[in-house]
Each structure stands twice: as structure tokens, then as C-alpha cells.
Design brief:
three-stranded antiparallel sheet; 14 strands; seven-stranded mixed sheet; binds pyridoxal-5'-phosphate; 10 helices
Length: 340
């Protein structure tokens, strides 16, 4: 269910209720988001193009700096997308061939494919009622071949990291976060992305901090790992002509970084707006026994959720989608489902 309610225009639906104007709430409305910040996009595009500043330029460095501060970590690195980010993290941390990496079963395919591309074996485990990686299922899935765990901080909510870190530390496993959906979300006042050894974010257009195309970032407090990933995202090339290690080409475009610099400044306000909408949905829907709603922003002191998505559980999911569609409300079934 889309939360950017104010960006959608009024539509007349005379066939349903004569004379009544019904608000249309499509799941995605990219043109409306562009309109909202059109001047910024056009001015930024012109400024960047007049400087010819496309690859590894100052807007990217500024964004990396700003993002690291926002998340509360030492280093941030702009990469092509979050999937590449996860791949770079896993490779740079030195995954042994065939090692197992435990992941949430309720996640996007990218969490698993990044592991496979890096030579590992993804092991999905059950999630808790919060739709996030559950520490007990995680511990049960550990084998002598387990190397790391990657909780997905789904829907803008951080998993119970205290228990996950406890299990991981007891078994000497790496923790990385798939924080693609969780920029700005907090657990016990600590930001998503700052719990793991390294974490990846996505700036895909539909994410809560979305650019005009693909984009992503990795963050870490480990300076050695950061330096390795910095080389790896740029063909393994050092300052001179030397190639220091095998890398890939996965740099966040400077133009996208310039847009993101602007959007990140507004981001705290955007999260508060999402939380406000989630509180409203909760008050309006909580008496419907057929629905399992996300935990309300007003409940649970340990969590500050950013509501990338408002994910509802319903036995009669198709019926609910059809009904909401008839009211002009768009929905999407994770994963890969088409927005209707
Ligand atoms: C969007 C998403 C990704 C992939 O992000 P890209 O930037 O498109 O590569 C990975 N994991 C989760 C949970 C996501 O939602």
C-alpha cells in the first residue's frame, strides 16, 4: 500500500458514487514524485552536466560523507545498486567457496543471488511474526559450514538485532545487513545498517530514498573492508595504472548522487510523514480481525520503523486487492508482483 497519499490527484468516479470525488492512490506514482521536485532535478541535471561531472566526482563524495554521518558509521561507498553492494561485501569479506550464508526466507531474490554470485550457498530460514529473521530459526540452521548471516531489515523495520548478534557472536559468524528497505529505521536508537560488519542500501526508485534509476551504497565501520570495496567497485584499480585486485564496475553515478544529496536532506521529514500515515492506517484498520497489520509506530519502544512498505497479512489476499483496487487504492504483492 502506497503511503505518499498527498501526491495523488483527485479523480472523479461517477459510476461508483455520483458526484463523489474519490482519491486515487496508485502504488507507484513516479511522475508525481518528479513533479514535486522538478526544479531541483532540472537544476541539478544542468549543474552536473555543465561541469561534465559524471563518474566518481564531488557530488558522490559529498553524498558518501553525508550518508555515513546519517547512518552513524565511519564509511559509506556509493555503488551501482544494492545487489552489487551485497556481492561486494561478501566477496571483500572473503567468503570461502561453498560456505553457507543464512538469510531471511521473506526477502527479495537479490539477497540470495548476491551470495550465489560470490560463490556461497544461501540458506533461507523462517521469519518471526514481524516478517523478519528469527534468532531461533537462525541458530537451528547453523552448520559447521555456516560463514555468515544476512538479516533483511524488511519494510523499514530492523530485526531483533540483540538476539541475532548474540547467536552470531557465539558461533563466530559474520553479520551483514540487507538494509535495502531500511534507511532511517532504528532499533534501540541505532540505525539500520550499523549493526553488521557491513550493510547495503538501495536507492532503486521505489525505495523510500529513491533516485532516478539504479543506485545503492555499502556502509561499514571497518576501514580495511571499506578500502577493499572501494577498489573492488572500480575494477580493482588503485590511483595509478596498477590493478590491485579483481573487481567489477559498480559505481554510483555522480548525477544520481547529486539528486540523492538533495533528497537525503529532506529524508527525515519523509519518514515522519510515512509514520504518520502508518499511525492513521492502524487506527482505521485495527478493528478488522481478518487483517494482521504492521506494528503501529506508537507501540514498541525498541523500534523506530521507517515504513518503506505497509505490509498487511490477510487470508483472503486476492479479495482484499480487488476490493482496494475498486476503491482506487493500489497494492503490490512482494516479491516481483505487479502493482495493481
Ligand atoms: C530492493 C531490494 C534489493 C535490491 O536492491 P537493488 O538496488 O535493486 O539491487 C535487495 N534486497 C531487498 C530486501 C530489496 O527490497
Amino acid at each position: 500500500m502506497q503511503i505518499n497519499a498527498e501526491q495523488n490527484e483527485l479523480k472523479s468516479k461517477p459510476d461508483k458514487a455520483p458526484g463523489l470525488k474519490v482519491r486515487s492512490l496508485p502504488f507507484f506514482n513516479y511522475p508525481a514524485l518528479f513533479k514535486l521536485d522538478e526544479k531541483m532535478y532540472v537544476d541539478t541535471f544542468r549543474a552536473v552536466c555543465e561541469r561534465g561531472a559524471y563518474i566518481l566526482q564531488s557530488d558522490l563524495l559529498n553524498f558518501e560523507d553525508k550518508l555515513a554521518k546519517y547512518v552513524g558509521v565511519k564509511h559509506a561507498l556509493g555503488v551501482g545498486n544494492c545487489t552489487d553492494g551485497l556481492y561486494l561485501i561478501i566477496r571483500a569479506a572473503g567468503i570461502p567457496r561453498g560456505a553457507e550464508v543464512i538469510i531471511s526466507s521473506h526477502t527479495f531474490i537479490a539477497t540470495a543471488s548476491a551470495i550465489v554470485q560470490a560463490g556461497g550457498v544461501p540458506v533461507p530460514v523462517e521469519c518471526g511474526s514481524d516478517h523478519l529473521l528469527d534468532a531461533t530459526s537462525f541458530e537451528r540452521a547453523i552448520t559447521p559450514n555456516t560463514w555468515a548471516v544476512i538479516p533483511t531489515q524488511l519494510n523499514g523495520r530492523v530485526a531483533e538485532m540483540d538476539s541475532i548478534l548474540k547467536v552470531a557472536n557465539a558461533h563466530k559468524l559474520f553479520v551483514f545487513e540487507d538494509a535495502a528497505q531500511a534507511l532511517g529505521a532504528k532499533y534501540k536508537s541505532q540505525n539500520a545498517g550499523s549493526f553488521g560488519v557491513a550493510s547495503a542500501f538501495s536507492f532503486y526508485p521505489a525505495k523510500s530514498l529513491g533516485c532516478l534509476g539504479d543506485g545503492g551504497a555499502v556502509v561499514t565501520n571497518d576501514t580495511k573492508l571499506f578500502e577493499k570495496m572501494q577498489l573492488m567497485r572500480n575494477h580493482g584499480r588503485g590511483d595509478g595504472t596498477e590493478v590491485l585486485l579483481w573487481g567489477i564496475n559498480s559505481r554510483l553515478d555522480n548525477l544520481q548522487a547529486a539528486f540523492l544529496n538533495f533528497l537525503l536532506d529532506q529524508f527525515p521529514g519523509a519518514i515522519l510523514r510515512r509514520r504518520e500515515m502508518a499511525t492513521l492506517y492502524d487506527s482505521l484498520l485495527s478493528d478488522l480481525a481478518e487483517l494482521v497489520l504492521p506494528i503501529s509506530p506508537t507501540k514498541g519502544e525498541d523500534h523506530f520503523d521507517s515504513f518503506q512498505n505497509y505490509e498487511i497479512e490477510a487470508d483472503r489476499m486476492e479479495d482484499l486487492q480487488v476490493f482496494l483496487k475498486s476503491c482506487g487504492i493500489g497494492t503490490l504483492r512482494q516479491w516481483g508482483g505487479k502493482a495493481v
